[in-house]
From TrEMBL:
Gene3D superfamilies on file: DNA primase, catalytic core, N-terminal domain
Name of the protein described by the UniProt record: Uncharacterized protein
InterPro entries: DNA_primase_core_N_sf
Domain of life: Bacteria
Amino acid sequence: MAKRGLDDPELINHFKLGYANRTLGLHLPQKNRKAGKQLRELLKRIGLYRKNRREHFNGSIVFPVADENEVISEVYGRKLLDNLSLSHTLGQPFMADLP
C-alpha cells in the first residue's frame, strides 16, 4: 500500500481501509466452534468469504462504502499485487453488496 501512497495512518483510519491477505480466517473464532461456523456462514452469505474458505478480496486493498449513518452497505476491493492470476475472479464482482 505504501507504493501507492496509502500508508498514512490518518488516511487509513479516516477511510477505514483494509488489506485482504488470506489471514481473515486466523482472526475469526475457530471453525469447529459454533461462533466460528456462524460467522463464516455470514461472511459467505454477504460475499466476503468464499465457499473454498478464501477471502473474496484476497490481494486487494478494501474500501468499505458507508451511508450517511456510517452503516457499511458495500465493500469495494482493488487488486494491488501484479503477480496474482485474475482467472479466479473472472465473472465475479470486486464489489460486495451487503444485506
